[in-house]
Amino acid sequence: MSQSRIRNFCIVAHIDHGKSTLADRLIEATGAVEKRQMREQLLDTMDLERERGITIKLNAVRMSYTARDGVEYELNLIDTPGHVDFTYEVSRSLAACEGAILVVDASQGVQAQTLSNLFLALDAGLEIIPVLNKIDLPGAEPERRAQEIMDLIGARREEILAVSAKEGTGVPELLEAVVARVPPPRGKEDAPLRALIFDSYYDRYRGAIPSIRVVDGVVREGTEITFGSHTDDVYHVDEVGYLQLGQRPAEQLEAGEVGYLVASLRDVRDARV
User: Fold this and answer.
1) Which CATH architecture has domain 194-271?
2) Are 198 and 92 contacting, i.e. CB atoms less than 8 angstroms apart?
3) Which DSSP string corresponds to the chain?
4) Within a 10 A sphere around the Cβ of 36, how many other Cβ atoms?
5) How would DSSP label each residue in 147-160?
6) What is the pLDDT along the chain (273 residues), one digit of tens a residue?
7) How far apart are CA 50 and CA 38, in angstroms?
8) What is the pTM of this model?
9) Which of 244, 257, 194, 243 has its CA nearest to residue 223?
10) Pick the CATH number of 3-181 from 1.20.1260.10, 3.30.70.660, 3.40.50.300, 1.20.1640.10
11) In the chain, which segments carry CATH 3.40.50.300?
């Protein structure tokens, strides 16, 4: 797909402000998973995450979205932790994105971790889409909280979206905002391969499997790769694909795209983030 129709973004928020629930609504709205397969906090897969209701390990999902103008877009959502203990994981996510949805609880307002994650996103040069969540709550104060956001980042009132992740209110408008406001990636498709590793995990049968954002070039089965300063070893790519609530093999990943690769890596340290 042309880079002009790719949007790579994340969601940043204070803990319990509804980030994972909003991610679930976006996935549901784009049809990335059937409604009968939906479960709360779909991107949170670690047992501890589901038990405590927080996001620790990074997850990513590719969604296909047909905008109101009839154009189909590839949306890559990279989930981020909202808890203060996981700032490093947040910074890894941001490096793979061009935009960030800033979620603020309409009843609680801007909190400490809101600021921390926002400043990380601003330092990374991301386009910020501010969102007031939980507008369905009796204690919601959308105008007061919107003013807090305007004072914080200089946003105009009309740029601040109102949603209820629980009810799904405002989600279609948020998807349109992602398409309109998040810049597309600008990698060089004919350049040598460069990719950013933002996560990895170990599979007992296939070795370490890194999640990547292709910066320049193309990676496909048979491509020879190295991992920069970490090791001089040369690996041959066995498989590439998309992250779509699981792994979906593909012929190749092009500049701007997000996915995974398999290259018989023996140790996750060989693909250090």
Assistant:
1) Beta Barrel (2.40)
2) yes
3) --GGGEEEEEEEE-TTSSHHHHHHHHHHHTTSS-GGG--SSTT--SHHHHHHT---S--EEEEEEE-TTS-EEEEEEE----SGGGHHHHHHHHHT-SEEEEEEETTT-S-HHHHHHHHHHHHTTPEEEEEEE-TTSTT--HHHHHHHHHHHH---GGG-EE-BTTTTBTHHHHHHHHHHHSPPP---TTSPPEEEEEEEEEETTTEEEEEEEEEESEEETT-EE--GGG----EE--EEEEEBSSEEEESEEETT-EEEEE--BS-GGGG--
4) 5
5) HHHHHHH---GGG-
6) 899 999 999 998 888 878 888 988 999 899 876 654 555 545 444 443 444 443 334 478 999 999 999 999 999 998 775 544 456 666 777 899 999 999 999 999 998 888 888 999 999 999 999 999 999 999 999 999 999 999 999 999 999 999 999 999 999 999 999 999 999 999 999 999 999 998 888 888 999 999 999 999 999 999 999 987 666 789 999 999 998 877 899 999 999 999 999 999 887 776 665
7) 14
8) 0.88
9) 194
10) 3.40.50.300
11) 3-181
Give the residue range(s) of CATH 2.40.30.10 domains in the chain: 194-271
Residues 61, 227: Cα–Cα separation, whole Å: 24
Look up tokens 């290259």; give the residue.
Answer: 263
Identity of the residue numbered 65 = Y
